[in-house]
Give the backbone structure.
Amino acid sequence: MRLALLATACTACLAAATASGAATFHASISRIGPEMKARMVGVSWHRGCPVPIRRLRVLRVSRWGYDGDVHRGTLIVHRRHARKLRRVMHVLFDKGFRIRRMRPVDAYGGSDRRSMNANNTSAFNCRYVSGTTRWSQHAYGKAVDVNPIQNPWVSNGIASPKAGQSYVDRTRHHRGMIHAGDKVVRAFASVGWGWGGYWSGPKHYMHFSATGT
């Protein structure tokens, strides 16, 4: 209970700081430049991916970190959804929602597992749905995973990443956690994106996508 009250108080302080003008949201959308492309090719993107690099965009946004300070974050997203996600991130910033890290998955060698273990919020990664040969929505730049440790993938009570095991109990309220109907779910729903926490099978609490899958 005490942790829940502290989390609520901190969020209220961040929201108040934003409202008072002490912190301002900034965002930009740009094409994939030569330097970013060089980092992506052969790592998060390769020949045969379902979306060409020219259809992706770099979305840079302000975010509240777990340290209570404002940081810049970067997502690689599909061009058709860049403005929508900018609106989502603006709402989350104004609401004081905290995001631990936000870096393109290339910083982790294109490894979804390494990115999750680092509690990194990421979007584009040309990969299959785990255990299948079906493209993930991440492979189209149409999905975002938010704070994977506090919002793990859960099946039969087992969390992935492993560091998220203590967050299988969704009655907890901790900074960075997402719950049904909360400000994060509502923000993504406002642009038509669905949440993996509503799935009927294993829950994917970190996952939001344009198709809801």
Summary: Residues 66 and 208 are 21 Å apart (CA to CA). The chain has one domain: 2-209. Confidence is low (pLDDT under 50) at residues 1-21. DSSP finds five helices and eleven strands in the chain.
